[in-house]
Each structure stands twice: as C-alpha cells, then as structure tokens.
Amino acid sequence: MPFKRKDILGIRELEVHEMEHILEMASSLKEINTRAIKKVPTLRGKTVIHLFYEPSTRTRTSFDIAAKRLSADTFSITTSTSSMVKGETFLDTVKNLESMKPDIFVIRHSASGAPHRIAGRTEASVINAGDGMHEHPSQALLDMMTIREHKGRLDGLNVLIVGDIAHSRVARSDIWGLTKMGARIAVCGPTTLLPSDIDQMGVQVCLHPEEVIPDADVIIVLRLQKERQQQMLLPSLREYAVYYGINAERLKRAKPDVIVMHPGPINRGVELNPDVADGPHSVILDQVTNGVAVRMALLYLVSQK
Amino acid sequence: MIDPLQGMDALADVLIWEGRVAEIRPRLEISRERLAELQEMDMTGKWIVPGLIDMHVHLREPGEEYKETIASGTRAAVAGGYVAVACMPNTRPVNDSATVTRFILERAEREGACHVLPVGAISKGLQGESLSEIGELRAAGAVAVTDDGRPIMDSLLMRRALEYARIFDLPVISHAEDSRLSHGGLMNEGTVSTMLGLRGIPSAAEEVMIARDLILAELAQCRLHIAHVSTAGSVRLIRQARERGVPVTAETAPHYFTLTDEALMGFDPVFKVNPPLRTEDDVQAIKRGLRDGTLDAIATDHAPHSVLEKDTEFEFAANGMIGLESALPLILDLVRADILTPSEAIAKVSCNPARILGVPLGTLQTREPVNLTVIDPDKTYILDAGQFESKSRNCPFHGRHMQGQALMTLVKGSIAYSRITP
Lengths: 305, 422
Ligand SMILES: [Zn+2]
Hints:
The structure holds two protein chains of two kinds. Chain A is α/β, with parallel strands linked by helices. Chain A contains eleven helices and nine strands. In chain A, the strands form two sheets. In chain A, strands 7-6-5-8-9 form a five-stranded parallel β-sheet. A four-stranded parallel β-sheet of chain A has the order 2-1-3-4. In chain A, strand 5, helix 6 (169-180) and strand 6 (184-188) form a beta-alpha-beta unit. Chain A is globular. In chain B, a hairpin with a 2-residue loop joins strand 17 and strand 18. In chain B, helix 3 (98-111) runs parallel beside helix 4 and helix 7 (203-220) runs parallel beside helix 8. By secondary structure, chain B is an alpha/beta fold. The model of chain B has no long low-confidence stretch (mean pLDDT 97). Chain B is built from 14 helices and 18 strands. The chains are: A alpha/beta, B alpha/beta. The interface between A and B is medium-sized, with 27 and 22 residues. Zinc ion binds next to loops of chain B.
C-alpha cells in the first residue's frame, strides 16, 4: 500500500499499517548511514525548510542530516518565541516561505498545535518535529524502532515511562504509538507531574517506581526541566532524584534484559544516573542513530504523496 | 404572544399605535376605516415576545473600535433579536468613571441601534486595588458593576465592593476565576487537555471563587450576580446558596450548553474562550441549572476579536467568541429539547435580566414605546458569520445548521431590524 499522507502531525492519527510502513522504510534506509559515502539521490531537487521556534540542536541536526543524506536542499530558520511580541509572525513567516515553493516544512514549536495550524494552509508537507506538550512523532517512531531492534517485537511488552508526563510530548506520542502496537504502558511520576485523566489514554498510573520496575521490559526516562521547582510542582531536584531518579540500585529489581531509554538531553544525576545512562541496559545512543533513519523515512514518504 | 412576566403564552392579536402597545387580545376587532391607517402583518406561527436583553456584551468602544463599535455591536444585537445590551467596562479607557459611562450613553443615543446599558468597573482601571466611584457611575447611568475579564483576587476588595454597591442597589457581577489556579491555562483541564498537551484550567478555578463570593454576598447582604457559569460544581454551589437565602443570581452562555472541550481537537482558536468550554457532564448540569431556575439568565458574553488576535497559534490567541447573532436559535434548541418551555426560555433573555439589572424592560405590558422581538421559531438555515452585522467573525457556530431566527426587532417603538421582505 502506498503512503498517502501529506503531513506527519502526530502519532494519534496514524494507523498501525502506516507506522509499520515508516518503520520498515527506516530499517532499510538505516544501512545508508553505515556506508562510506552516506548519500543517496532520492530527494535531489527537493527543498526542506527546518522551521524551529524553539531551540533544539539535537532534533534539528538529526532532521538536517537525514535530509542531506537523501540529497535534499535544506534551510534552517531558528527563532525563539520569546523574542516575538505576538504569534502571528509565525503564520506570516510560513506564508512568506510558502511562496518560495518548499516541498517540506519540518516544524518545531513551543505552542501545542502550531504545525496543525500550518498544515491546512500550505501545499508543502508538514512534519511535526515537536509541538509544545502535544506530540513528537519522530521521537515515538525512533523509540519503537529501537525497542523492536532489541526486543524483536512491540506487542505484549511492558513499557514504563517515568518522570514529567504532564509536560512531555514524548510521553504522549509514545503512549499513542506503543499502545496501538500492542504494548502495555505504565506511567510513573509524582502526582504533580501526571496530567489529569491520563488513565483515559489507556495507561496504568503509578506513583512509586518500585512497584512497576520489576515488570518492565522497557523503561523510558523523561527529562525533567529544572524550572519545575519554581512552579510549585516539586520541592527540589534532589528529592525528585531520591524518589524517581533511575539508578543502578533501583534497577536491581528489574528484569535482567530490561532496556533503558531517554529522549535526551539527560540531566545526569536527576532523572537518570550515569551508572545507568552509560551502563549495559542503556540503548540511548541507538535511539540517536535510529533517529536519523526514522527521519529519512518520514522525509522520503511524505515526498511520495 | 409570550410575555413571561405577565404569565402570558397565548395566541393573540396585538395593536401597536404610535410605537406603543395599544391592545393585546385573542381577536382584535378593528373597523375598516381604522385599518386603513394601520399596517397589518400576518405573524401566524411566529412568537411575539418582549424585546430580548443580553446582559453580558463587550462592545469594545471606546478603545478597540477595530473589533467592534457601539454602532456595529448594537446592529448585531438587533439582528439577533436583542433590544438591549449591557456592555462590560473593559474598554480603553476602562469604564470606571461617570465620564466614560456618559460617553457610552451619548454615543449609543446617537449611533446605537438599541438600548445600551453600561456596566461600570468595580475597581479603578480594573486594577483590583481600590474601588471606583460607584455612586457616580450609578448616577451617570451604570446598571451594575464588575471587573469582568479579570477576577477580583483580593477578598477584602470584593467584600467592600459588595457592601458599598448596596448603597446604590447595584448588583455586583462576578467574573469568577482564581487566576492563580487558572494561571497559564488555555482550555478546560481534563482528558482533552491531556491529549492535546494544552495547559488546563480546572473547574476549581471557577468554583473556588464562586464559593468565596457567595459567602461574601451572604456577609454583605448585597446582590451578587455570577457571570458566565460553566461548570457543574458552580451550578451546585449557586443552587445551595440560593436555598439558604443568599441574594444571588446567575447567567450562562449558549456555548456552555452547546459545545464541549472536544471542539478544541483541531486547535482552532475560535473555540478559545474564558471560562473554557467544559465537558458533557458540565453541559448537562448547565441545562439542569437552566431548567430548575438556578441559572436565571442566558447572556452571550459577546467578545469580538479580529484576526490579529485570533488567527495565531492556539496558545497566543485571545479568549472570546461573538454571540449576538447566533444565540437565539441555540436558546430555542433548549425548547425543542424540552429543557425549557417557550416562556421560560424567553424569560432568561428578557424579564430575568431586566429584573437583575433593575431596568424597565422585559415586558410588553408598558406605556412606554414598545421593545419587542418577533421570532420565527421554525426558520432553518446555515449560519454564515460572513453576513454578520458585527465587525468581528470569531463565531464558533459559523456553518452550523440552525433553527429559529429573529424576524423583526422593534426598539423604542420603531423597527430597528427586519427580515420581512415587502
Ligand atoms: Zn468574564
């Protein structure tokens, strides 16, 4: 079945067969990244604009490398929303860029739903590279790819997501995607960082990591923003680390083949200890490698529309 | 003919002479020569009701005339069947003085299509710090006071406002929101906000403030009116308070009994409003509150915004929807759903708001020039916001199938708006 979507806005609207299609494509494109000459002419003559309204060196670099390895011409526009007086600048900017006939917009924005506001108004494809607290589809797909590489499957796995669920677009996209692929999800974090009615997304909710770590096949550790302390959400990062930080001690009760993932960048010693981040269970660098492959697949597939 | 204040809901003929209701009878006998001086209109199947009153409108003038003016806002009102609108004080400058109140009334007299009832500010500059000159506001023509758009976070100031407003028998209208609890919120807090990753405003932000204001109104024995009630818990609190004799009245708006937060799934800022659209449970509770009388009035909270404020990322868009030209068919939906009788529905937009604001409107039984609305309850159409009299287009009901429309609006005895083609 050909891939028909113009845009990749979120995992919520993707069907299982579409995710399978993307993951298959990513696996076959991954090999290009190991060649001596890491470039194929697939997207030659196509223009990809990276429109980043929130700083993110990692995701932008990953998308940029992906596009360049497919021979697309890429341009990056990085603006911080804090420097804008009002939001209309964003829509104006896109309108302007639109008249230069790009093929794909890769959009990162601090406001949830911002790429959705664009998708309906442009001929170009829109790939959501993370919007506010809403979705981060490419991250969820690279997480699925990484889990499958290590576990051979997604169906029937127990996946534990630990940390700041409330503010995490990664958590939301992972929950949508992994649930559809047949995994069972537990989310764990302090009550102040669990969004209301999160159980309605079909996940088990847990307040104490000890209770769910022993069952987990996969542990996804989320980044904790330092400013959560000032927002009365946490008394201190120290106390957070004591109760929710993932360290070797906590993993003693985990399955021997558990894998630990993190979307990066890591606050070492807060949500994840170096003894785990750099330890045998960590697959964090595989996630980074797969990120490029997944993004190549997304760029390729939307340009087939 | 429906006049809730008179307990009237009957088939009747009405004779309007020199702008005044001269006679209402089941069957008027009029001589042939007298008939020649009159214009006869066949209103079979239509409702003749006291002119509708919207007690919560933002006319934006002075200060934001690019969104709405007194002229355009009142034209929108008469097109929607309203003969009077109460306008909120969050203009620029704020209506916190007799000067601004007089400006509004003079402008309305000159350019307005219907009655304009100014509502003064509780606090100077809506700053929530010190009382505005409420006596002077009253003397200039203000019918109530409110800091609408902003809550009064200072409980002492709210207490003083309630005590002081009692001298002038003015109701204090509460925009009930604990802005610490709602801080940064963009929509109702719940399943949908969690799915969309939009910061939520819990029902508690509204209910905590209503609870406080009810207690303060009881203490001050002043008339308190709660604006735009949106949650099940708010309805419950008001119902309980009224049962123990607290002098409280309340309003809701059509969007709170018609839409839920599911409407936000596409991130369209036209659905962004404060208080936010809530859940189906809240919608049902609002309907029960309307039915049992806990909610006395239906107001639109008509809040015009231009594309500048609305056509942006959801997070940066302004709160508010226009409502004057879409409210009536949605209110009639409540009649069709057997939630309200026709008379109860009309009361929520005529005699009840008139009583709350203490204005001599809301009935056909008057010697003054008549304010009257003729409603075609059966007219079906697709709502087109592009045809609105309002200057703004932020209507969440654009494109919706509607049933019921104002056919003709009479203000001070003359036809202010008519859809009757000669
Ligand atoms: Zn308000």
